[in-house]
């Protein structure tokens, strides 16, 4: 299987698509041809690592890594994505829990898979210098990438985050690693971090000298593993209940949701898809008006979804077409901060369930917008993070302490160390 830019151009091998991140023409890599699966031929109720080997096999066809796919899946899929049914009856509701990885958010799937593939590609290239992975983060991505690459031979990671603008627990997850992880607090905003990362890659001399690689969210190596939990949850539910599942995916840059679209297109039993956004309404506005109008992001309680110009829309349009065609495949609704707060309180009062602000957008869409449809079918709300990551927001709303998952608790005990720098690339290169 080869990979091609959404804007055309020559196909490249999987390794090159993963190592270069973005295509040279500014487009995003997608497989030249999406494989097709018949659910009847696929196993249900198998561990995610095993299903991943089957689902990802065609994507690795002909790659120098194809012989190592099983090992890569064992390395990457070290935690489960349980589907927990919370309501039965006419309309059934489940939650797909994507927060059982080391940093308690779905980004652990993409980051671990990227680390498992990149480290093997690097090992094969006989370059004695370490590869330097640069990641600019507004919170969740940097922690997941640092956790995934920590102590991997032949790699080091530079995490750039905006000084004082991430939550205390997020900051800890970005700065507790040491060893091959360099954490830098940039005096400025997330945009300054991103600008610095771009400036580093754009400088050919620096890029070559330090063997720079990008781990940003549009890397195809992060999307591939994400399609596996959609395949798994939809197959398992179909096997047990004979019905397909409908999904509500909280969305910012459309990475997680695009993986769901892939799963549907590949033939897995995914019926309706709804994208829940926060107050950043570029996607629902596009589906309403047909005009693609990217804009600056606004800050919300669901901060990991604060995206005004979702990059993966380019992939989604290439897969399914423009607004008119997309409207046939999916819907999208925007949820305000007040609605997020209210939803967190309501779900807790209803059943004791504590959801994070991102997941709350999905619950809001389900309770308030779908309730009147009363269709007898199965909905899955995708839980993108554990509420304990956002304790500063969620605890005051539910009025009690949220138990911290073991792995997160372990990380939070490690000492944190980082340098604070001016937004200037010389401050970064001085530390490489
Ligand atoms: C990154 C993130 C999102 C948004 O995911 P996209 O792939 O950007 O749409 C939602 N929730 C959490 C907790 C995240 O970390």
Give an overview of the whole structure.
With 432 residues, this protein is of the alpha/beta class. It has a domain at 81-105 and 223-404: Rossmann fold (3-Layer(aba) Sandwich). 44% of the residues lie in helices and 17% in strands. The protein contains 18 helices and 14 strands. Strands 4-5-13-10-11-12 form a six-stranded mixed β-sheet. A five-stranded parallel β-sheet has the order 9-6-7-8-14, with helices on both faces. A hairpin with a 2-residue loop joins strand 1 and strand 2 (8-13). The model has no long low-confidence stretch (mean pLDDT 94). The structure holds pyridoxal-5'-phosphate. Pyridoxal-5'-phosphate binds next to helix 10.
If you average the pLDDT, what whole number results?
Answer: 94
Q: Could you name the CATH topology of the domain at 81-105 and 223-404?
A: Rossmann fold
Name the shape in a single word: globular
Number of helical regions: 18
Strand adjacency order, main sheet: 4-5-13-10-11-12
Task: Quickly list its features.
432 residues, alpha/beta, binds pyridoxal-5'-phosphate
Structure described in brief:
With 432 residues, this protein is of the alpha/beta class. 44% of the residues lie in helices and 17% in strands.
Topology of this structure?
Layout: E1 2-5, E2 8-13, H1 14-20, E3 29-31, H2 48-60, H3 69-76, E4 83-87, E5 92-97, H4 107-124, E6 131-136, H5 140-149, E7 155-162, H6 168-175, E8 181-186, H7 190-202, H8 204-210, E9 212-214, H9 220-241, E10 245-250, H10 255-265, E11 270-277, H11 282-289, H12 313-320, H13 323-329, E12 330-334, H14 337-351, H15 357-370, E13 378-383, H16 391-398, H17 406-413, E14 419-421, H18 425-429
Parallel strand pairs: 5-13, 6-7, 6-9, 7-8, 8-14, 10-11, 10-13, 11-12
Antiparallel strand pairs: 1-2, 1-3, 4-5
The chain binds pyridoxal-5'-phosphate.
């Amino acid at each position: 299987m080869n990979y091609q830019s959404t804007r055309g151009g020559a196909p490249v091998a999987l390794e090159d698509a993963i190592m270069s991140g973005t295509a040279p023409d500014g487009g995003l890599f997608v497989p030249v041809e999406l494989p097709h699966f018949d659910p009847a031929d696929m196993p249900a109720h198998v561990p995610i690592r095993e299903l991943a080997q089957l689902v990802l096999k065609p994507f690795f066809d002909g790659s120098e890594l194809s012989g190592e796919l099983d090992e890569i899946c064992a390395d990457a899929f070290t935690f489960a994505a349980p589907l927990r049914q919370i309501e039965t009856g006419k309309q059934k509701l489940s939650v797909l829990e994507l927060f059982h990885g080391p940093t308690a958010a779905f980004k652990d799937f993409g980051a671990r898979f990227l680390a498992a593939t990149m480290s093997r590609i690097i090992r094969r290239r006989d370059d004695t210098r370490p590869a330097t992975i640069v990641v600019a983060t507004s919170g969740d991505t940097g922690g997941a990438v640092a956790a995934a690459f920590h102590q991997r031979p032949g790699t080091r990671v530079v995490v750039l985050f905006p000084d004082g603008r991430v939550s205390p627990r997020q900051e800890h997850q970005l700065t507790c690693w040491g060893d091959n992880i360099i954490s830098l607090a940039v005096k400025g905003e997330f945009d300054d971090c991103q600008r610095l990362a771009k400036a580093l890659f754009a400088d050919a001399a620096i890029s070559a000298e330090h063997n720079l690689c990008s781990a940003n969210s549009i890397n195809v190596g992060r999307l591939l593993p994400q399609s596996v939990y959609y395949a798994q949850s939809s197959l398992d539910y179909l096997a047990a209940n004979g019905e397909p599942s409908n999904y509500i995916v909280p969305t910012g840059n459309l990475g997680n949701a695009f993986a769901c679209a892939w799963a549907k297109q590949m033939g897995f039993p995914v019926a309706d898809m709804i994208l829940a956004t926060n107050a950043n309404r570029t996607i629902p506005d596009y589906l309403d008006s047909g005009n693609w109008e990217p804009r600056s992001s606004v800050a919300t309680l669901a901060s990991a979804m604060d995206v005004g110009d979702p990059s993966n829309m380019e992939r989604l349009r290439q897969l399914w077409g423009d607004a008119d065609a997309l409207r046939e495949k999916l819907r999208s609704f925007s949820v305000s901060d007040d609605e997020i707060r209210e939803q967190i309180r309501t779900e807790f009062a209803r059943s004791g369930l504590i959801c994070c602000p991102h997941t709350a957008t999905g619950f809001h869409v389900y309770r308030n917008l779908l309730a009147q449809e009363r269709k007898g079918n199965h909905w899955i709300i995708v839980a993108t993070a554990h509420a304990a990551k956002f304790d500063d927001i969620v605890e005051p709303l539910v009025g009690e302490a949220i138990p911290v998952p073991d792995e997160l608790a372990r990380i939070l005990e490690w000492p944190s160390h980082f340098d604070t720098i001016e937004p200037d690339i010389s401050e970064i290169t001085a530390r490489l």
